[in-house]
Amino acid sequence: MGAGSCSYALGCSNDILVYEETTTSNTTTDKNGNKVTKVVSEEVVISGNSLNGLQYTGKPLRDDPADILAHELVGHAIPHATKSDTGNAVDNENKVRAQEGAGKNAQRAKEPTHVE
Fold first, then answer.
1. What pLDDT is stored for residue 22 in this prediction?
2. Which stretches of the chain are DSSP H helices?
3. pTM for the full predicted model
4. How far is Cα 81 from Cα 73, in angstroms, rounded to an integer?
5. Confidence grade of residue 15 (pLDDT, cut at 50, 70, 90)
6. Which end of the chain, N or C, is less packed with Cβ atoms under 10 Å?
7. CA angle 62, 47, 12 (to 5 degrees)
């Protein structure tokens, strides 16, 4: 994202940096042992790996790197750089998932403590 792009498009004061990390130094591990993303301010780091174990209505939910990037952007980075949306990162993510085509728009289970 070029300098000023975030300010113009989203009204934020800082650019949002997005990159794939190939080492584990800037990633964390979830309860299932998967490498997951880490957000620090408006910097988004993704591992490029899918996350296994997410559920919706008791069924597995797709969570590939594109889904993870969308979550990190709309759930954390953009609200930090601009203003809060729903206050909940998973609710923000589900807004994105709802826009996908039939059969691909399953909603992630609610996580009330997963804040922006």
1. 45
2. 5-10, 65-72, 78-81, 89-98
3. 0.68
4. 10
5. low
6. N
7. 90
